[in-house]
Specification:
Structural class of chain C: alpha/beta
CATH superfamily of the largest domain in chain C: ATPase, nucleotide binding domain
Strand content of chain B: 5-15%
Radius of gyration of chain B: 16 Å
Protein name (chain B): Methanogenesis marker 5 protein
Radius of gyration of chain C: 22 Å
Oligomer: heterotrimer
Number of helices of chain B: 7
Shape of chain B: globular
Low-confidence stretches of chain B: none
Chains: A alpha+beta (151), B alpha/beta (150), C alpha/beta (414)
Protein name (chain C): ATPase BadF/BadG/BcrA/BcrD type domain-containing protein
Distance between the termini of chain C: 21 Å
Organism (chain B): Candidatus Argoarchaeum ethanivorans
Order of helices and strands of chain B: EHEHHHEHEHH
CATH topology of chain B: Rossmann fold
Pfam family, one (chain C): BcrAD_BadFG
CATH architecture of chain B: 3-Layer(aba) Sandwich
Shape of chain C: globular
CATH class of the largest domain in chain C: Alpha Beta
Helix content of chain B: 40-55%
Structural class of chain B: alpha/beta
Largest sheet of chain C: 9 strands, mixed
Low-confidence stretches of chain C: none
CATH architecture of the largest domain in chain C: 2-Layer Sandwich
Number of strands of chain B: 4
Number of strands of chain C: 14
Number of domains of chain B: 1
Order of helices and strands of chain C: EHEHHEHEHHEEEHEHEHEEEHHHHEHEH
Pfam family, one (chain B): DUF2112
Distance between the termini of chain B: 5 Å
């Protein structure tokens, strides 16, 4: 049987906020989160911030945060609570864990996503680019023959 | 709000897009959270115990490596809940929960085999691709085949 | 307490198999700590080109990038543990090449291991103990001569062996089947003391090894209690007089097998197998029993036979033996059956263990099974190299213990 503590722990979620913003640095983000006066724990990270608290509190905060910079704030859930020793490199043998590299890679793609989201909201339709078809075999044969001939 | 399975299941970009367009992303951290906050389990760091690869036998036979089956014990429940899926065919990189190519092949197969509404698309490499990527995902998430599950 | 050792973990799948706590528990028991090399994404993105092996699994790329960080000296560790899931072909390639890479490019001891969800800290303990000994006691392992008057006791699963050594020579031996660990140790020890013509009180030091090493070490107040990978490799190069350069030590034991790559007398890479009884001395014991010959005669019988005359469908100690029995019932010659049994054990060791180490000549075979002549012969046929059997081969662990413990006597005197 689950005790009250167990239930409350399971009710707590953690979300990772990653910035790709021209207007906001992690410090600014933290200030804005504090200003919202929600019952959550916040930690600044190199990519943005982590927030942890009851599901409804975190989700409500996330909705408010998104409005601050709709195209510069990206959010996903995190499995581990903030500062969990099991995932902290200081307490578990050093070295970044796989999840860090995942964020490292995806953060690099966020500027492209920001722009694409903005354009989507502006109603810009993507221009479709057909993938070039494979070279016609007869044309290829001729090129090979020409190359060999010129050797 | 439909439950949308994303692949890679730990992708920031996909989780964000699904949430942004009003659905619930089914992501692996949700399963990890259940594990790491379970009282009574002490198998750090993820609290996956040798019992979990056995649970994974539901998805892959015993001759499949234990790491695949352990990962499937996390991803399997997400698959079962999914109303629709967004799959990136060639993600730039996937680590940890999605760090095993064999697991990823199996997950992709099981998503297809489930016959749920599904959008497959390539990972964007330039602005044009990114525009196309966001457009297709947004349109898919607002399409009637996805919205009918709400 | 011995100094803390940092073991770099290069792995894929340990967390998802539920065995990460087992690895860390085994390391903790030998006062070691598992550490993870810090790499960034650029290192990982480049690694296939840098290392030369293309893999589909990103976590294997991370594994290779971490290996390179160690080789490049960016991560400071004392030993390396490479582990991937059993039955993953891609991971087996990466594991094997990374193990070789670490061995060739660094002087760090390295072990590779393929695990399942059933792997426990108990299974890993002897491996971790050997790995940390190699890291921690390099000066002791560099010892090439036995000095003073020392004894070594090797409490194996099948037999208990003891030697007394004086000034680099074996002067007494004792060998008894293992029944009760302490009783058998006493008996072997007393026999060895008697044959050497000395009293226990005259000894400068005592070393113990083998399964019963802790129990016997406690009771007799041993100066060195050491797992068998380290002592067997030292004992082998000492007895075979191959202390310089490369060597490979193979010991097919009653319950498990060891294959150890040694350089200048110091073990650097090893495997310790113990899953299948079909690849152990037990298989030969049962064969001997079915043939109605003493185990000591099985080898010579095998030399007269031809393994190819017997069809064996399995390495298994149940089904493989059944094949042998069936062939006897259809008129097969006992010598062919003996040869087939030796070949079966050797072939399984060759296929499943020797791929995990660098087999470099000279190949030295030790342990009681090395005296079953058909077995080293079968190994020679498989490896296409000469297999050396040193004198006192069956006492290998005891000799290694007596040799190493004499180093501790010197140290204390200084």
């Amino acid at each position: 049987m689950e005790d009250a503590d167990d239930v409350s722990k399971k009710d707590v979620i953690t979300k990772l906020i990653v910035l790709s913003s021209r207007h906001m640095m992690p410090g600014d983000l933290l200030y804005k989160i504090y200003a919202l006066r929600k019952d959550v724990i916040v930690k600044e990270t190199c990519f943005g911030a982590e927030v942890s608290g009851k599901k409804e509190d975190v989700n409500s905060l996330i909705r408010d945060i998104r409005i601050l910079d709709p195209y510069g704030i990206f959010i996903k859930e995190r499995g581990f609570p903030i500062g969990d020793l099991r995932r902290c490199r200081a307490t578990s043998g050093g070295g970044a864990r796989p999840g860090f590299h995942q964020i490292e890679v995806e953060a690099a793609a966020l500027p492209l996503m920001s722009r694409a989201l903005l354009e989507y909201d502006m109603g810009v339709k993507p221009t479709t680019h057909e993938k070039p078809a494979k070279l016609d075999v007869d044309v290829f044969k001729k090129i090979i023959a020409d190359c060999l001939h010129s050797l | 709000m439909s439950k949308i399975l994303i692949y890679p299941t730990n992708s920031l970009v996909l989780a964000d897009l699904v949430d942004r367009f009003g659905h619930e992303p089914l992501t692996i951290p949700q399963e990890i959270r259940k594990k790491v906050t379970s009282v009574g389990l002490d198998s750090p760091p993820l609290n996956i115990t040798p019992e979990d690869p056995k649970i994974g036998l539901k998805y892959a036979a015993v001759e499949v490596p234990s790491g695949v089956r352990g990962r499937m014990s996390l991803i399997g429940p997400l698959l079962e809940k999914a109303d629709a899926a967004v799959v990136v065919n060639d993600p730039e990189a996937t680590f940890g929960c999605m760090g095993c190519a064999r697991t990823n092949e199996l997950v992709n197969f099981l998503i297809r085999a489930k016959k749920i509404p599904m959008l497959e698309l390539p990972y964007p490499t330039n602005e044009d691709d990114a525009r196309d990527f966001v457009y297709k995902i947004a349109e898919f998430l607002q399409s009637s085949e996805v919205l009918k599950h709400e | 307490m011995s100094e803390n050792v940092k073991i770099a973990q290069l792995s894929c799948g340990t967390e998802y198999s539920g065995i990460q706590p087992e690895i860390e528990a085994a390391a903790k028991q030998v006062n070691a700590e598992m550490v993870f090399a810090d790499v960034d994404y650029d290192d990982i993105a480049r690694i296939e080109k840098d290392f030369g092996l293309e893999v589909a699994s990103p976590d294997l790329k991370l594994l290779m990038a971490r290996a390179k960080s160690i080789v490049d000296g960016k991560t400071d560790v004392d030993a390396v543990f490479v582990a991937t899931c059993f039955r993953c072909a891609e991971a087996a390639l990466a594991r094997s090449e990374v193990r070789r890479y670490i061995y060739e490019k660094t002087s760090l001891p390295v072990i590779s291991y393929s695990f399942t969800e059933r792997t426990t800290s108990g299974t890993l303990l002897t491996r971790m103990e050997a790995l940390t000994t190699m890291a921690r006691r390099k000066s002791l392992l560099a010892r090439e001569r036995q000095t003073g008057l020392t004894a070594g006791i090797d409490s194996g699963s099948t037999t208990t062996k003891c030697v007394i050594m004086k000034d680099n020579e074996v002067i007494g031996t004792g060998w008894v089947p293992t029944t009760k660990v302490l009783d058998s140790a006493d008996e072997a020890f007393n026999t060895a003391l008697e044959s050497a013509g000395i009293k226990q009180s005259e000894l400068d030091a005592l070393g113990t090894t083998g399964y019963g090493r802790f129990l016997i070490g406690d009771k007799l107040g041993a100066d060195l209690v050491q797992e068998e990978v380290t002592v067997n490799s030292k004992g082998a190069v000492f007895l075979a007089d191959k202390q310089k350069g490369d060597a490979t030590v193979i010991d097919i034991g009653g319950m498990d097998n060891k294959a150890i790559s040694v350089h200048d007398g110091i073990p650097g890479m090893f495997t310790l197998g113990g899953i299948c009884a079909g690849a152990s001395g037990r298989f030969l014991e049962i064969t001997a029993r079915r043939l109605g010959v003493e185990i000591t005669k099985l080898g010579d019988l095998a030399l007269k036979g031809n393994s190819k005359n017997i069809e064996m469908n399995s390495y298994c100690i149940v089904f493989g033996i059944q094949s042998l029995v069936n062939s006897l019932s259809t008129g097969a010659k006992p010598e062919d059956v003996a040869a087939a049994a030796c070949y079966s054990v050797a072939e399984q060791v060759f296929e499943q263990q020797l791929q995990e180490v660098e087999v470099k000549e000279p190949v030295i075979m030790v342990g009681g099974s090395s005296l079953i002549a058909g077995l080293p012969k079968a190994l020679e046929d498989l490896l296409h190299v000469e297999v050396h059997i040193p004198k006192y081969s069956q006492f290998i662990g005891a000799v290694g213990s007596a040799l190493l413990v004499s180093g501790l006597v010197d140290t204390s005197k200084k």
